[in-house]
Specification:
This protein is α/β, with parallel strands linked by helices and about 325 residues long. The chain has 13 helices and twelve strands.
Length: about 325
């Protein structure tokens, strides 16, 4: 347990000076206050709740909450995290990265101290247990993701439902009548992760609206799982000619598995992915895709948070319109 005396020794001041800096009961020079703030951050000191703000000043630190749960694709998450960090630096803020699955306890740990001014929260679930606390906190927050009930929160994300619809609509225009969605790992759906659920909703709604036969299959993020899913899809849907992939880790092995099973892409099977553009374009068969705008999401989240910190009004909901880029993996359905 870090004590106030430890902070004082680290900052080169007396314990009473630390106390005054924390409580604001007496004026402290800007230089001394900065030393105290730095010591608090470096040592992880948690002041008493009654003195948790540093004299009303800011730490110029944002918390980025990314619980690294099973089933998430870390490279995509890290692209967003890098964007948050670089954008925050443009606003003269640093970023404290919280990756443990701590739920409300993790949020309380950073907000009950002067460690951070505000929070960006990722991996949002439809029924996220962190929401009541986020609504009650005295710190601004932005969610990258939309829970089922986003009222009273500031949320930004790709419109994943529209992305799922866009993929199916493109396949339908190409004449495909039997389609499938190869989705995220099963545990992502079990948790009720919002973006994954919304892709399924959009995919299913568009297929039903267009009269297409459709299936949804979660897929573990391994080549072996991709092979099993490809085999299962062809058993269940022998007339399958269109596949949407929302699982970046299995995109390449899934295409390879279909080809090994005798289907040429795009001659026999058209494939559309929801993934970063650079991933889709780099494959042996460049894949038609809806881009995951990770960098833009990180930048938008920080900009919204900066506006909230200055008291400027912001929209509660910011949904980015999905953008589809045609590449070599899609073609009109061949006549039966």
């Amino acid at each position: 347990m870090v004590r106030i005396t430890d902070v004082a020794r680290h900052a080169g001041v007396s314990p009473s000076t630390v106390s005054y800096a924390l409580s604001g009961k007496r004026p402290i020079s800007a230089q001394t206050r900065r030393r105290v703030e730095a010591a608090v951050r470096e040592l992880g000191y948690r002041p008493h709740a009654g003195a948790r703000s540093l004299a009303g000043s800011r730490s110029n630190v944002l918390a980025l909450v990314i619980p690294l749960r099973t089933g998430i694709h870390v490279p995509v998450v890290m692209r967003c995290a890098v964007s948050v960090v670089t954008t925050a630096r443009r606003h003269d803020h640093d970023v404290l990265l919280l990756t443990q699955e701590e739920g409300e306890d993790g949020l309380r740990r950073v907000t009950d101290t002067a460690l951070v001014d505000a929070l960006i929260v990722m991996d949002v679930q439809l029924h996220d247990p962190r929401l009541p606390l986020l609504r009650a906190l005295g710190r601004p927050s932005v969610l990258i993701g939309f829970p089922r009930e986003p009222e009273g929160l500031t949320c930004v994300d790709l419109d994943f439902r529209a992305a799922g619809e866009l993929c199916v609509e493109r396949l339908a225009r190409l004449g495909h009548r039997v389609v499938a969605l190869v989705g995220s790992p099963p545990e992502v759906y079990v948790r009720g992760t919002a973006f994954a659920q919304r892709v399924v909703q959009g995919f299913t709604a568009a297929a039903d609206r267009g009269g297409l036969a459709s299936r949804v299959h979660p897929c573990e993020a391994t080549p072996a799982a991709a092979r099993r899913v490809a085999e299962q899809l062809l058993r269940e849907q022998p007339a399958l000619t269109g596949v949407v992939v929302h699982n970046e880790a299995v995109l390449e092995p899934l295409i390879e598995a279909f080809e090994q099973l005798g289907l040429r892409v795009p001659g026999d099977l058209s494939v559309i992915a929801i993934c970063p553009d650079e991933t889709a374009a780099a494959l042996r068969v460049p894949v038609t895709s809806v881009a995951l705008p990770s960098a833009e999401l990180g930048e938008r989240a920080v900009d919204l948070l900066m506006r909230k910190l200055t008291g400027t009004g912001v929209p509660e909901a910011t949904l980015l319109t999905p953008r589809l880029t045609e590449r070599a993996s899609t073609a009109p359905r061949s006549a039966p």
